[in-house]
Amino acid sequence: MFLDIGISDMLSISQTIGIVGTLLITLFFSRREIKGLLIANIVREK
């Protein structure tokens, strides 16, 4: 059940996984940062 994958295919797949992973990590941290900024804004307005 081993697929015959060339080295170039493996590099392409790993590059795609790396790009998607980087996007997900960036999205996660930017959401946390935005949430923190909103909370800081609410606290400062009171």
Give structural notes.
With 46 residues, this protein is an all-alpha fold. Helices cover 85% and strands 0% of the residues. The protein has one helix at 7-45. The longest helix has 39 residues, at 7-45. It is rod-shaped.
Features:
46 residues; 0% strand; mainly alpha
Helix content: over 70%
C-alpha-based Rg, rounded: 20 Å
How many distinct beta strands? 0
What gross morphology would you assign? rod-shaped
Poorly predicted sequence stretches spanning 5 or more consecutive residues: none
Element-by-element helix/strand order: H
Largest sheet: none
Q: Which percent band covers the strand fraction?
A: under 5%
* Secondary structural class: mainly alpha
Query: In angstroms, what separates the terminal alpha carbons?
Result: 63 Å
Number of separate helices = 1
User: Can you give the mean pLDDT?
Assistant: 85
Short description:
85% of the residues lie in helices and 0% in strands. It is mainly α and 46 residues long. The model has no long low-confidence stretch (mean pLDDT 85).
